[in-house]
C-alpha cells in the first residue's frame, strides 16, 4: 500500500464548472488525519475563490464517506490542553469553516459510514444525498471525550437537537432513512444509483443563476452566524489530561473495552 494511501489526502478534480473533492483515506474508511484537515481548508479556500465554479461535490473514496477522525493519531496530541485546542479550534474548525465560507453550492454525496467528523463534514454542505445503506453517528462517548463546542453547534443545528443528543449521549448509529425524515438529507437512493442522482442534482444546481446561489449562501451564512459563548470556549479542552479521556482513546487503540 502506498504512503499516500496510508497518510490520507484530500483530492480535487475539476471538470468545467464542477469540482469534486474526495476524502481519500480508504485504508481507514476515509478517517480524517490532521494533515487532511489542513488540506481541506486550503482546498476549499482555493475553490471558493474561483469565479468559474458553480458547484462542488464532496464525497469519500470508495465505499465510505468518512468514518470520523484517525484515532491512531490521537495519543500524540489529545492529552495536552494546548495541542487539543489547536487541533479542534484551528485544524478541524479551519477545515469546516472553509467549507461553510465557500460561496459555491456544495453537495454531499454520502455512502457507507458517515461518523463523527463525517457528520461534521456533511453538516457543512448545502445539499445532502445518501445511499439508503449509509450510517450516521458520533459515538465518541465511547472514547471518553465530547464533541468540541463549535462542532457540536454545527451538528445540532443541521441534524436537529434530538438526533444530536441521540448520537452524542446515546451513541446511536442512525439510518439514512432516519436522517431523511429529519430533513438532514434531501434524498436517499440505492447505492448503485447514488452517482446518477448526485449528477442529476449537480445539473439542477448548474441550471440556476450562479450569482443568486452565491448571494443566497452569504445570506444564509449571516443568519446562522451565532457563536458558542466565550466562557464555554475558554474551558472546552480542560479535560485533555483526564483519566477518562486517556482511557477511552487508549482502549480504542489497544482494541479493548474501556473501563470508565
Please describe what this structure looks like:
The protein is α/β, with parallel strands linked by helices and 260 residues long. It has helices at residues 3-7, 34-48, 81-100, 117-123, 149-159, 161-169, 176-182, 194-206, 210-223, 230-235, 243-254, and strands at 9-15, 18-24, 55-60, 106-110, 113-115, 127-131, 135-137, 174-175, 187-189. Strands 1-2-3-4-6-9 form a six-stranded mixed β-sheet, with helices on both faces. Strands 5-7-8 form a three-stranded mixed β-sheet. Helix 2 (34-48) runs parallel beside helix 3 (81-100) and helix 5 crosses helix 6 (161-169).
Present the secondary structure layout.
Layout (H helix, E strand, L loop, with lengths): L2 H5 L1 E7 L2 E7 L9 H15 L6 E6 L20 H20 L5 E5 L2 E3 L1 H7 L3 E5 L3 E3 L11 H11 L1 H9 L4 E2 H7 L4 E3 L4 H13 L3 H14 L6 H6 L7 H12 L6
Parallel strand pairs: 2-3, 3-4, 4-6, 5-7, 6-9
Antiparallel strand pairs: 1-2, 7-8
